[in-house]
Please model this.
Amino acid sequence: MSTPEPGRKKRRTGLIRSVLGAAFGVQSSQVQEEDFQSRSPWRYVVAGIVFTVCFVLVLMWIVSRVVASGGVQ
Model:
């Protein structure tokens, strides 16, 4: 198994930081401009959808655990 290229790893972490920043509303204007100048928006769209699905599933899991511990069914 080969190790990822440094540029590719940087792009991946940049994508993750951009999606998290956008999701929580703390993304800087400079980063937003860099994202808009990207060649393809599909990476951001897919990453945003994946993040949203994971976020909702985690919230559902937390709520089900809280409800189960409270004795309410």
